[in-house]
Amino acid sequence: MRTLLPVRFVCSTFIFCLVCLAFTVAAQQIQPGASPQAGTVSGQGYVSQDSVAENNETSENIRLGAGDLLDVSVYNVPELATKTRVGSNGDVYLPLVDYVHVAGLTLDEAQEVIEKRLTDGGFVNSPHVTIFVNEYASQNATILGEVLKPGQYTVLGQPRLFDIISTAGGFSERAARRVTITHRVPDDKPVNLQLARNVNDDPAKNVEIRAGDTIVVQRADVVYVVGDVGRPSGFLMDSDSLTVLKAIALAGGANRTAKLSEAKIIRKTPQGMQETRVELNKMLRAKVSDFPMQAEDILFVPTNGGKIAVGHVAQAALQAATAVSVIALVP
To answer: pLDDT tens digits, residue range 246-299?
Structure first.
């Protein structure tokens, strides 16, 4: 007499088989190399590591350097295939031929040197060597500071500054448009650039980036406007052109209850906090000249009738400045 399997067991087995079939189909649909990885930057913009083979084809003039990770193979001699990294002295270690100096050579030149060593040593007759670069560690440029993804990026071809910034995620909210580029060669002077708010408006600043360059995107300076104004805030400065009246305008103007004649600028100095009286009432009537503010200045506009103890203005202004949000200036 046959024993019938429980209905629950049969159903569970059927569901399990369906799940396995679904995973099998999904796995067959996934293409190799589909997962996102860190990328490189070429003269054409962003290139993912899935295009490393293309990079090898388009970088014939790029020379090998310390840290590069190489796949070296000899046609029809699989025993000599090896993965090796260029040492700090520029050498790679290869089976049979020992150490070979490849730093400063192009791929074609390095292949020819290894082929000659194999031939001269009597190891392989008429060898055909192929070098594939897995990692261009010697072709890195570094971007630091106010970008979304600071770090090292491989540069191939003739990439430009805006390519690197774009690959690094673009500017952060606190970024100034001041960029410093330091080259690997010690004798080269750093390059300081003041970019336009819309970088495409000034293509001349889109300079070429070379391997070994370090790019630093500076943080924008901040000035604060607090007290009896429409929108007490901190404002990012892209240049030194922010004046007292501009700052007041950005803050929504002074309120009707503001005591304009008693406004002050609180400024940090090596000797401590310094208070400078600003006669806003006369400045608004063009009876006294407007003047520029400096980084970290606090423009404090008191309330008419409000009383602050002598010597405590700076403290009150600092407390107010720490409570406001910082706003980027967008023309």
So the answer is: 999 999 999 999 999 989 999 988 888 888 999 999 999 999 999 889 988 999
Mean per-residue pLDDT of the chain:
79
CB 177 within 8 A of CB 194: yes
Indicate if the pLDDT at residue 43 is higher than 80. no
Query: Cβ(203)–Cβ(163) under 8 Å?
Result: no
C-alpha 331/C-alpha 328 separation (Å) is 10
Candidates 331, 120, 299, 155; CA nearest to 227 is 299
Query: Is 3.30.1950.10 the CATH classification of the domain at 63-135?
Result: yes
Pick the CATH number of 141-219 from 3.30.10.20, 3.10.560.10, 3.40.50.1390, 3.40.190.10: 3.10.560.10
Contact 112, 99 (CB under 8 A): no
User: Is residue 23 helix, strand or coil?
Assistant: helix
Are 230 and 251 spatial neighbours (Cβ–Cβ below 8 Å)?
yes
Q: How far apart are CA 107 and CA 60, in angstroms?
A: 7
Could you tell me where the beta strands, DSSP code E, fall in the chain?
39-42, 45-48, 69-74, 82-85, 91-94, 98-101, 129-135, 140-145, 151-155, 175-182, 191-194, 214-219, 221-227, 233-237, 263-269, 272-278, 298-301, 326-327
Q: What is the CATH number of domain 221-327?
A: 3.10.560.10
SS3 call for 22: helix
Residues of the chain with CATH 3.10.560.10: 141-219, 221-327
Q: How confident is the model at residue 242 (pLDDT cuts 50, 70, 90)?
A: confident
Residue 294, helix vs strand vs coil: coil
**Three-state secondary structure call for residue 328:** coil
Beta-strand pair 140-145/214-219? parallel
pTM beyond cutoff 0.85: no
